[in-house]
Specification:
This protein has an 8-stranded parallel barrel. The chain has a 5-stranded antiparallel beta sheet with strand order 14-15-16-20-18. The protein has 3 domains: 417 residues, Alpha-Beta Barrel (TIM Barrel), CATH 3.20.20.80; 53 residues, Oligo-1,6-glucosidase, Domain 2 (Oligo-1,6-glucosidase, domain 2); 83 residues, Immunoglobulin-like (Sandwich). It is 27% helix and 15% strand. Bound molecules: calcium ion (CA) (2 copies). The site of one calcium ion (CA) has 6 residues, from loops.
Length: 590
């Protein structure tokens, strides 16, 4: 049994649900009342995604329901109450389609079914229905750049040069016998061209050999993929996360990519031992992508309230802005990795990037994301090994109290640690097998969700497909639920603050103390409503911080504390905020 200490009744009920002590329907009325006040429901229903909280589930690793060691749809359905209480508005499911699993689902062999490892279409329908009861929307991953080489389209395409589906993929002659058409490389290492002896041509694969690229210049390909989107929207799916969307097109002249040079003018060599190439404009980010994004938006618009999220790794805000469409007629939410992947605790960099998202994307909604299934978890990219909990608290504060749609990755909320394999024979991700030992692959951020301190962390009764990290005894939902100062409860409170305070949900972002090198501070404002101010200490030393409100219209320095680092004192005024190492203060100006 848990000991709760002195907590509000509301919090007790919520915690009990999280712990699975009572079921959701018993509490439905209280949730409904809470939902009434939420800004998301005040906005027009079709704009539900603005200010929403989106949770990425890697289905293989979330919850196993049948003891085969692999997470599945029924497992996800059994954890919806947890997500409801956490405050999640939508779930993005990494791919669950039939797949040979060469790239764990990002190699799809049938776009309109469910992989038997994850369940059935009936299981999927039940997941959608149960999620809907809890006002949680399902967003599917959609992989449009390539299929599996086991997809019937590719099998037909590869069968002969005259097959009607030959032109559905990117086939080219070699430059000479044994020489590929050009120097393009796979993002997963080595040449992007695979020779097919049967038809004496090469096919192009931006990713694995088993992931041939579709030819997006072919209108039949476009129609097939758009119909697939309709298929899932009819089943109640609320939109798509478009995998690798900037890579749809390649240079029509097949020109070589340029080699990146190091400081001495020598070719730069990457982790796979290949020369690093400049992909921009050749196999990445071609202008024609925007034509497809516009067409997709039209397809999406056939169903109200549906959204397009983009996997858009851009190096500048202009490309990000362009992805929304010149007339805001492309992606609703291209991911802004420029904030989340700064990967060092530099307040100036955070200030610059957050402000760009606020001021340079035509007033559109930014989508901030700090973590996903392709990158080491937060501890590995931002932690110092000493204050990881405090740093993760701070990062989550930036995520949930900025003006954005907030996307986070399963396990972030309990502080799961990156746990890469230590021996090559244990590596499941082919990226790690190709790149070992420099590149250990992505297994380390895909370990099973840690639910309990019990056997296999409550993930499975069988043998988990990836080992459970040793941290699970303390880093798990059940343990953290009963600790008021845990990261899990910090997440829950932040999300609750965002749901209940319209200024935190949608107010404009105004950066404060803009030359401070140690503290990142900003204000959230809506005319006529109390301003909310936030300060995050980006250093391992305590800071005495004074908010500089000169960039705002505020005249008072009196504030009510909304949230603060556990154990720290309420400040007497905004001139004297004592921030512990990596500490956080959120106040409402009076
Ligand atoms: Ca299973
Ligand atoms: Ca492509």
């Amino acid at each position: 049994m848990f000991t709760f200490g002195k907590r509000s009744a509301k919090f007790l009920i919520a915690l009990s649900i999280v712990a699975g002590l009572i079921s959701y329907p018993a509490h439905a009325q209280a949730q409904k009342a809470a939902a009434k006040a939420s800004p998301a429901t005040q906005a027009s229903a079709n704009d539900w995604w603005k200010g929403a909280v989106v949770y990425e589930i890697y289905p293989r690793s979330f919850q196993d329901s049948n003891g085969d060691g692999i997470g599945d749809l029924n497992g996800i359905t059994s954890r919806l109450d947890y997500l409801k209480v956490l405050g999640v508005d939508a779930i993005w499911l990494s791919p669950i389609y039939p797949s040979p699993q060469v790239d764990f689902g990002y190699d799809i062999s049938d776009y309109e079914n469910i992989d038997p490892a994850y369940g059935t279409l009936a299981d999927f329908d039940r997941l959608v229905a149960e999620a809907k009861k809890r006002d949680i929307k399902i967003v599917m991953d959609m992989v449009m750049n390539h299929t599996s080489d086991k997809h019937k389209w590719f099998i037909e395409s590869a069968s002969s040069k005259t097959n009607p589906k030959r032109d559905w993929y990117v086939w080219k002659d070699g430059k000479a016998p044994g020489v590929p058409p050009n120097n393009w490389q796979s993002d997963f290492g080595h040449s992007a061209w695979q020779f097919d002896p049967k038809t004496n041509q090469y096919y192009y694969h931006k990713f694995y050999i088993q992931q041939p690229d579709l030819n997006w210049d072919n209108p039949q390909v476009r129609k097939a993929m758009y119909d697939t989107c309709r298929f899932w929207m009819k089943r109640g799916v609320y939109g798509f996360r478009l995998d690798a969307i900037p890579t749809l097109f390649e240079d029509p002249q097949d020109r070589d990519e340029q080699v990146v040079k190091d400081a001495n003018g020598n070719p730069k060599i990457n982790a796979y031992g290949d020369q690093e190439l400049i992909t921009e404009g050749m196999t990445d980010n071609l202008p024609k992508v925007h034509d497809v994004e516009k067409e997709l938006r039209q397809v999406i618009n056939e169903f109200p309230g549906r959204i397009l999220i983009g996997e858009t790794y851009f190096s500048n805000v202009a490309d990000l802005r362009r992805s929304y469409g010149i007339k805001n007629d492309e992606l609703h939410l291209p991911m802004d990795f420029q904030v989340g992947m700064i990967n060092k605790l530099d307040p100036a960099a955070f200030r610059l990037r957050i402000n760009e998202a606020e001021t340079q994307i035509n007033g559109n909604e930014p989508l901030f994301v700090f973590d996903n299934h392709d990158n080491p978890r937060l501890d590995a990219r931002y932690g110092d090994g000493v204050h990881d909990l405090e740093i993760e608290r701070m990062i989550s504060t930036v995520l949930f109290t900025s003006r954005d749609t907030a996307l986070f990755y399963y396990g972030d909320e309990i502080g799961m640690k990156t746990t890469p394999p230590t021996r090559i024979e244990d590596v499941k991700d082919p990226v790690g097998r190709t790149g070992w030992p420099k590149e250990k692959g992505r297994d380390g951020e895909r370990t099973p969700m840690q639910w309990t301190p019990g056997p296999n962390a409550g993930f499975t009764t069988g043998t988990p497909w990836l080992p459970i990290p040793p941290t699970y005894k303390t880093v798990n939902v059940e343990t953290e639920v009963s600790d008021y100062d845990s990261l899990l409860n910090w997440y829950k409170q932040l999300i609750e603050l965002r749901r209940n305070n319209p200024v935190v949900a949608t107010g404009k972002n105004v950066m404060l103390n803009t030359s401070d090198t140690k503290v990142l501070a900003w204000a959230r404002q809506i005319d006529g409503q109390p301003t909310v101010v936030i300060a995050c200490n980006f250093t391992a030393e305590p800071q005495k911080f004074a908010f500089d409100l000169s960039g705002t219209n505020l005249t008072t320095k009196q504030a009510k504390t909304l949230m603060k680092t556990p154990g720290s004192a309420d400040p007497a005024s905004l001139d004297e905020v004592n921030l512990p190492p990596f500490g956080v203060y959120i106040g409402q100006v009076q």
